[in-house]
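Private note to self, pasted from the team thread so I don't lose it. Backbone tokens:
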């Protein structure tokens, strides 16, 4: 049954007269649909990028901030926020299960544009100092579990946990080379630290740091599994919270008057 036939049947059932649209009006309607899609993608990209930079920004921005302590916790927890909201919108209204992959793709595209054009092109920072994190393993797992289970509870427990667990292994393939020790003027440091020292940024003390110096060292030199487990737990809770935020923003609200 075509779209026109379906529309005619619905109008006939309502007891009104069906007036088909002209071909020109249909083309304008389709063009407006694509304009709405493009505007939605741009707004989502800008909002997600701004949110992520204001929360996990420095840990994701600089190479020498990508440690095995706070970076593993902050980045996936702050990234799964928009994934949960978009999951509700695409799954509940369109039955599309790729909300997390869509979100991280838009985030990575925005990050590469800003860092390559602004920081590498204009400020001449080396691009390996500005490389963004890699979220695709966790995003694909989150989408797959939502598709297979159809449940936001299961997606939060299993998919959210995998989103947090897979973040560090997914990034270690390209990050490991920068965590090898080097000796500079009699001081042993990581290659990431050395790159950070050689590229002057702001003068505030928080940028003058040693990678992986923190309280999580008390776990016997194995902070990465502890951080990943904590990130997995938080990702589950944050996913559920933002699922309902997406529900709140995407559902139509009506105001009724008892006097009418």
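Design output:
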């Amino acid at each position: 049954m075509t779209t026109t036939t379906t529309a005619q049947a619905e109008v006939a059932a309502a007891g009104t007269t069906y007036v088909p649209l002209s071909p020109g009006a249909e083309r304008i309607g389709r063009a407006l649909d694509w304009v709405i899609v493009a505007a939605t993608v741009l707004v989502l990209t800008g909002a997600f990028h701004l949110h992520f930079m204001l929360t996990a920004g420095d840990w994701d921005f600089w190479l020498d901030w990508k440690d095995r302590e706070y970076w593993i916790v902050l980045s996936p927890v702050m990234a799964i926020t928009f994934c949960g909201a978009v999951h509700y919108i695409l799954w509940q209204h369109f039955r599309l299960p790729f909300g997390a992959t869509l979100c991280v793709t838009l985030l990575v595209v925005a990050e590469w544009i800003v860092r390559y054009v602004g920081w590498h092109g204009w400020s001449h920072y080396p691009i390996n100092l500005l490389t963004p994190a890699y979220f695709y393993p966790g995003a694909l797992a989150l989408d797959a579990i939502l598709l297979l289970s159809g449940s936001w509870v299961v997606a939060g427990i299993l998919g959210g946990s995998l989103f947090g667990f897979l973040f560090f292994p997914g990034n270690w393939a390209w990050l490991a080379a920068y965590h090898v020790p080097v000796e500079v003027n009699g001081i042993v440091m990581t290659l990431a630290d050395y790159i950070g020292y050689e590229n002057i940024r702001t003068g505030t003390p928080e940028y003058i740091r040693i990678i992986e110096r923190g309280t999580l060292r008390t776990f016997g030199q194995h902070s990465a599994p502890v951080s990943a487990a904590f990130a997995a737990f938080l990702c589950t809770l944050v996913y559920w919270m933002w699922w309902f935020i997406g529900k709140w923003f995407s559902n139509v609200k009506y105001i009724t008057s008892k006097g009418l």
